[in-house]
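To whoever is on call:

I kicked off a structure prediction for a single chain this morning and the downstream step that reads the tokens threw a length-mismatch warning. I double-checked the sequence; it's 367 residues and nothing unusual in it as far as I can see. Pasting both halves so you can look.
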Amino acid sequence: MKFSCSKPQLVEAVTNIQRAVSTKSSVPALEGIFIQAKGSQITLCGYDLELGMTTSLEGQIEEPGRVVLNARLFGDIVRRLPADTVSLSVDKKETALIVSGASEFSITGIPAEEYPDLPSIQEESPVELPQAMLKSMIRQTLFAVAETDAKPVHTGTLFELQDGVLRLISVDGYRLAVREEKVPGEEGLRFVVPGKALSEVLRLLKETDAPVTLHVGNRHILFSIDRYTLISRLLEGEFLDYRSAIPKEHATEGIVNTRQFVESVERVSLLITDRLKSPVRCIFEETEIKVSCSTSIGRANDQLEARMQGAAVEMGFNNRYLLDALRNTESDEVKIQLNGPISPMLILPREGRDFLFLVLPVRLKSE
């Protein structure tokens, strides 16, 4: 195998592909990047048996072939090469020679035959969405994905396509995030994508109307994004019946400036540390929200304007969960719905229901 290509393009491709490579595996090939030169395309692939990513770039190919190179070493080398062009050749003993300007590296490769095949997907009809829309939907729900494996299916986000509406739902036992958009197509689809895969999809998506295509199979999903394809296994199990978790009625409702609420909670949270955990106390009154916190090192009080209707409510929240929800609204103002001190708080857009965030309260000790 022998080819040459642009260094900046190769660096970008290797940096992205490296994130799908296994960092520690009993199969040495899985710690590598699979490289294939064929026609005028150089294809790179990373795969850790759960998540696979491939991309291709243009290059001058003198001799087709394929090899697997250690991802960490190959990545470190190409990022530090001095010239704008890189040439790579592999001999019959799988030794790769990487040349750029005055720099020359010779590293040992692994036979391509030892690299496992990526899963294939047999699907009926792909779903096509604008990249900016999917990027926003993932960004606004990924924060609520469970971090522990207590219920593995909740370490992913539920995709639900029904009656021309796509919903993404994440839940972790303390909060719930729902985001929806109208999309073409009426077919019913329901599957759960691991949070790790969605983090990588989020990095690849751009703020454009260019399409991203989702190919959904029985056990895997494939995202086609520009020159990248990302394949991930789907999570199995019984996902929370999120509709029944959302309160149907509320006694108190109001509009609040998102930024002011975030800044107020951030200020009183200065007293909270990993060792000194304490809930943030919020008192929702007709014209204001009083925010306070007290730990063994001190006490903080703050307040902000609000337009509330209904009974005054005093509630406690985990500061991180409350901040995550408010920061991910991406709105100047939000609607808050409450139904007493031990019912979840709902955070919605001022108009409509494009997103819905639910944050469970923390029981407050009487002072």
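Update from on-call: the warning came from a stale cache, not from the record. Cleared it. Sanity check on the structure: Residues 7-18 form the longest helix (12 residues).
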